[in-house]
Design goal:
Blueprint lengths: L14 H7 L17 H14 L13 H13 L2 H16 L8 E10 L8 E3 L4 E10 L5 E8 L4 H12 L8 E4 L6 H10 L2 E4 L15 H11 L13 H27 L1
Parallel strand pairs: 1-5, 5-6
Antiparallel strand pairs: 1-3, 2-3, 3-4
Length: 269
């Protein structure tokens, strides 16, 4: 189904965005008939689901059949395509603003989210009084996602951070420092230094501050969470698998990243 056969949605990729994303979608390998599915329409359907938060079966009839869209989501989740594309686009953005391809500093935070009755994992976060999951997020100084890990909400930030950082250890060769809030204070600081070789700096709110206080570096990851909150699919956890929840985060970042690169290309054209 081509783009000209239906009216566009506001979530659809522009021509400029698609030109940026298309090279990152690999062609099928091996023998077999050529792909007949329009991958742009697959991505458009996924972005519609991400932004609106609708159910798979509630995708509009003028988009691709939900079974086909879900097939590609499941495939891209399983083989790491969405995570890979996130990393490649992040590198392009960093290079476009004269930064090194790999970051030397990062910011870490978590977000507790309620689950629905269809979700397959949950735990109770007594501090935030949320029964659900917790997204542990690591971003660079531009607010772009370096890694995300979804665990049950009853797991403490410090324990979730260890799992997250063990996952990315060795994947970020230039990383030297991580900023985080007071929830990560304590033995985690020494653990990060001894196990990962990084400096974990705790940025605490002033004891005398009243009302809103803009904390150094911490606002960057808070802004990223704000970006993710635009995706209604992430307002609660609707997924049965943690890998699906993580893939939805990478999917939600695609419009923002491709839009930023498209604007930069137009600016320098």
């Amino acid at each position: 189904m081509g783009l000209m056969r239906r009216r566009t949605y506001s979530t659809d990729l522009t021509n400029e965005q698609w030109a940026i994303l298309k090279p990152h979608l690999t062609e099928p390998r091996g023998r077999g008939s050529p792909r007949r599915v329009n991958l742009r329409e697959v991505v458009n359907a996924l972005l519609y689901l991400s932004r609106t938060g609708c159910q798979w079966r509630m995708l509009p009839h003028d988009l691709l059949p939900w079974q086909k869209v879900y097939y590609y989501f499941k495939q891209w989740r399983g083989d790491g395509t969405l995570e890979r594309i996130n990393g490649e686009l992040r590198t392009e953005i960093r290079l476009s603003v004269d930064k090194d391809a790999e970051p030397s500093a990062a910011i870490m935070d978590s977000q507790s989210v309620k689950t629905t009755e269809t979700s397959g994992m949950r735990g109770y976060d007594a501090g935030k009084k949320v029964n659900g999951i917790k997204r542990h997020l690591l971003v660079d100084t531009l607010g772009l996602v370096l890694a995300v890990m979804v665990l049950t909400a009853n797991i403490q930030d410090r324990d979730g951070a260890r799992t997250l950082l063990e996952q990315v250890k060795g994947k970020l060769p230039r990383l030297k420092k991580i900023w985080a809030d007071g929830g990560y204070a304590g033995t985690l600081v020494d653990w990060v230094k001894s196990v990962c070789g990084w400096v974990l700096e705790i940025v605490k709110r002033s004891d005398t501050a009243q009302g809103f206080e803009l904390l150094p570096h911490r606002w960057i990851v808070e802004r990223t969470l704000g970006w993710l909150n635009r995706s209604r699919r992430l307002s609660k956890n609707y997924e049965r698998l943690s890998t699906s929840s993580e893939a939805m985060v990478y999917l939600a970042m695609l419009p923002l990243m491709t839009k930023r690169l498209a604007k930069q290309q137009i600016r320098y054209a």
